[in-house]
C-alpha cells in the first residue's frame, strides 16, 4: 500500500475531490500553507493499493493547473532605509506529490 501526499492549489480542490471520490478513492483534505508564498494551499492524503498509484496521479494531472502568480513578496531597499515592494512572478505547479510506502494500515 502507498500513501500519496498531494499539495494542490485551493482552486483545483472541488473538482479533484469529486473525481477521486467518483473513482472510489478515499481521501483526507488538510488546510496547509506554502512556506514560500505563505498562502493557503491544500494537502490531500490518499491511501491506495500499489497498482492504483498511476491512476491517482492521472486524476491529479487532469484536475490541477499550473498558474503564474504575481506576488510582492520581495522588497528592494531604497536610499534612506525605505523598502519598496518588488513584484515577483512565480509559477505555482499543478501539484506536488510524494508517494510513500505504508508499513501498516489499520482500521478500527
Ligand atoms: P510555496 O512554498 O508557497 O511555493 C509556491 C511556489 O513558489 C512554488 O511552486 C515555486 O514555484 C516557488 N518557490 C518555492 N520556493 C521557492 C524558492 N526558495 N525560491 C524561488 N521560488 C520558490 P511549487 O513548486 O509548485 O510548489 C507549490 C507548493 O507546494 C509550495 O508552496 C509548497 O507548499 C509545496 N511544496 C512544493 N515543493 C515542496 C517540497 N519539496 N516539500 C514540501 N512542500 C513542497
- CATH second-level architecture of the domain at 2-66 and 93-101: 2-Layer Sandwich
* CATH topological fold name of the domain at 2-66 and 93-101: Alpha-Beta Plaits
| Spans of at least 5 consecutive residues with low confidence | none
Number of helices: 2
Mean pLDDT: 92
Strand order of the largest sheet: 2-3-1-6
Any ligands, ions or cofactors bound here, and which? ligand 2BA
Radius of gyration from the CA trace?
A: 18 Å
Helix content class: 10-25%
CATH class placement of the domain at 2-66 and 93-101: Alpha Beta
Which series of helices and strands comes N to C? EHEEHEEE
The end-to-end span amounts to 17 Å
Strand content: over 45%
Quick one: how many beta strands? 6
Structural class: alpha+beta
The gist of it:
This protein is of the alpha+beta class and 108 residues long. It has two helices and six strands, in the order βαββαβββ.
3D structure, described in words:
The chain has 108 residues and is α+β, with helices and mostly antiparallel strands. It has a domain at 2-66 and 93-101: Alpha-Beta Plaits (2-Layer Sandwich), CATH 3.30.70.120. It has two helices and six strands, in the order E-H-E-E-H-E-E-E. A hairpin with a 3-residue loop joins strand 4 (67-78) and strand 5. The two termini are 17 Å apart. The relative contact order is 0.28. The protein binds ligand 2BA. Residues 7, 34-37, 39, 41, 90-93, 96 line the site of ligand 2BA.
Amino acid at each position: 500500500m502507498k500513501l500519496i501526499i498531494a499539495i494542490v492549489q485551493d482552486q483545483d480542490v472541488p473538482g479533484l475531490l469529486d473525481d477521486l471520490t467518483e473513482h472510489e478513492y478515499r481521501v483526507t483534505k488538510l488546510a496547509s500553507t506554502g512556506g514560500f508564498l505563505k498562502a493557503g494551499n491544500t494537502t490531500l492524503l490518499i491511501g491506495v493499493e500499489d497498482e492504483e498509484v498511476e491512476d491517482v496521479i492521472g486524476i491529479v494531472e487532469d484536475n490541477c493547473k499550473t498558474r503564474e502568480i504575481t506576488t510582492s513578496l520581495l522588497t528592494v531597499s531604497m536610499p534612506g532605509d525605505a523598502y519598496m515592494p518588488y513584484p515577483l512572478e512565480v509559477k505555482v505547479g499543478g501539484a506536488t506529490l510524494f508517494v510513500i510506502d505504508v508499513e501498516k494500515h489499520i482500521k478500527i
